[in-house]
UniProtKB/TrEMBL annotation:
Organism for this UniProt entry: Rivihabitans pingtungensis
Keywords: Metal-binding, Methyltransferase, Transferase, Zinc
PROSITE patterns: HCY
Cofactor: Zn(2+)
Protein's name in the database: S-methylmethionine:homocysteine methyltransferase
Binding, Zn(2+): 229, 294-295
GO BP: any one term: methionine biosynthetic process
Source taxon at top rank: Bacteria
InterPro entries, per the entry: BHMT-like, HCY_dom, HCY_dom_sf, Hcy_S-methyltransferase
Entry keyword annotation includes Metal-binding: yes
Length: 315
């Protein structure tokens, strides 16, 4: 469980982008299912990417379920049973990669934490595949969000992840719904909740991050809070806001630093693993305890991060 690992280690290294690495290895993700498409087409490649992130130094693998939903799979013609199998396969692949890596590297036992599997719970907007995950303002009520998330949570948890990664949430409404579901229906589960932010103080929908983080303070199932899928330049202010608003461990896994063009669906700029790793050192100094990467980050970024972070993890 994540809470126990955080008691034993002062810093956990998260993985980087899954979709970016799948694309680098030849996958065409121009699809409403995005990386979840590879669960159908080439699941072995997902397992390989998870393994390579562990080898690069990641202590946590995040599953390929971000864009996976019953609604999305139904549009592809899959039954509810087939969709459940895909969701659970995403966890199985990460667990298999973790177990194989750990068994092959006994010299790491006691030096690094046994890696964890985080089941990705993407936002309602990701299912729409219309960019609303980056702005919020869904225009739906809490019951709609509950009905969307409930079966996904149940399916993912049945596959045995160590933690749920409720990530890239653009708004407080969705975070509150997820926290209520965890408290009422999945009391044994642990989760982290991570918001996407538009600047150094606000979620993508516009609420103060401090307000959003504080709203989760009384949910014991939420064991860490933070920010992902956000420009790295905003992270120092956001870490400060999260730490001031909550006693929960803070996690950050921003994008690599490139700029996304939603019209042409492409990235501009260039990323630098060493610069990313140096920025991550600052985020840790400011209080972040779980650090990794989101869009456009790669195993090279995680390897550079681990080069300085591993002594922190092991001492």
């Amino acid at each position: 469980m994540l809470s126990q690992t955080l008691q034993d280690f002062p810093l956990l290294i998260l993985d980087g982008a899954l979709a970016t690495e799948l694309e680098r290895r030849g996958c065409d993700l121009r699809d409403a299912l995005w990386s979840a498409r590879v669960l159908l087409d080439n699941p072995e490649l997902i397992r390989a990417v998870h393994h390579d992130y562990f080898a690069a130094g990641a202590d946590v693998a995040t599953t390929a379920s971000y864009q996976a939903s019953y609604e999305g799979f139904a549009r592809r013609g899959l039954s509810a049973e087939q969709a459940t199998a895909c969701l659970q396969l995403s966890v199985q692949l990460a667990r298999e990669a973790r177990d194989a890596f750990w068994a092959a590297n006994p010299q790491l036992h006691g030096v690094r934490p046994r890696p964890l599997v985080a089941a990705s719970v993407g936002p309602f907007g990701a299912m729409r595949a219309d960019g609303s995950e980056y702005v919020g303002h869904y225009g739906v009520d809490d019951a709609t969000l509950r009905d969307f998330h409930r079966p996904r949570l149940a399916a993912l948890l049945a596959a045995g992840p160590d933690v749920l990664a409720c990530e890239t949430l653009p708004c407080l409404q969705e975070a509150r719904v997820l926290a209520e579901l965890l408290r009422a229906e999945f009391p044994q589960a642990q989760a982290w909740v991570s918001f996407s932010c538009r600047d150094g103080a606000h979620t993508c929908q516009g609420e103060p991050l401090a307000e959003a983080v504080a709203a989760l303070a009384d949910c014991p199932q939420v064991v860490a809070v933070g920010v992902n899928c956000t420009a790295p330049g905003f992270i120092p202010e956001l870490v400060a806001a999260a730490r001031a608003a909550s006693d929960k461990p803070v996690l950050v896994y921003p994008n690599a630093g490139e700029t996304y063009d939603p019209v042409h669906k492409c990235w501009h700029g260039c990323a630098d693993p060493q610069a990313f790793a140096e920025a991550a050192r600052l985020w840790h100094a400011q209080g972040a305890r779980l650090i990794g990467g989101c869009c456009r980050t790669t195993p090279e970024d995680i390897r550079a991060l681990a080069a300085w972070a591993r002594p922190v993890v092991t001492n």
